[in-house]
Design a protein that fits this description.
about 260 residues, alpha+beta, Trna Endonuclease, Chain: A, domain 1, five-stranded mixed beta sheet, three-stranded antiparallel beta sheet, 8 helices, extended
Length: about 260
Amino acid sequence: MEELLKRMKERTAILKKAISKAKQDNRRFPEGSLRISFSNNRPRYYHITPNGDPYGEYMKKEKRGLVEKLAQKDYKEKFLRDATKELALLEHTIKLLSKSNADLVFRNLSIHRQKLVMPYLKTDEMFVEEWLEEGKNSGDFMTETLVYDTKKGDKVRSKSESIIADILYDLGIPYLYEKRLDLRDGISKYPDFTLLDVKRRKEIYLEHFGMLDQPDYLARNLQKLDEYRANGIYPGNGLLFTYEMEGTPLDIKGIRKMLDELFCQ
């Protein structure tokens, strides 16, 4: 619910700014309105005035400025009408949801009552805890190569992965290392990191490509990306990736900024 309220408040701010901009448009618009018809798929513009021809007076090319002013006038009137209605509805809904929503029922209980009941809507904290518990043992293969420690207390296979894990930990982003992912074709993959987008309660996979300058390594991972895409997982839809190669070190600052913007703001 917090995420919904946040999005509604963001939309409210955008609408207020746009409405203010429209109201400050003090251009003197001509009387009447614009009618558009088509002849041979080409638009023809007509100026409709209160006491004139109800179909309007045809405007030639040299009256393009008048056409644009009439179009802007019509748009401004319709925009202000609908934007004002939407803003009022949003503000009313935000006010209601801020006072009463299903998430608040459990949170407003005393800590002693919370311990006695099982909520029908899990809090974010409960959801994260269960997600971590369910997925913590889904990997565990080739454990002998897990040699780098992380702040979270687990082990990973490379120094760069330990840096990424520590960034996730510092930002408070829940993650699991090499959690098994079963694809639709029956193949199982083990993404380097499975992140939990708590706000949307959605898993995001992060792959780190550490040796892109090695042809065999590059070919294997390009095939992995193809398999992900065939299963509806690709950049912009559930997949992130980081990389490094000789001459191109891990962009620690950039990775932190990316993760912070995607998960923490």
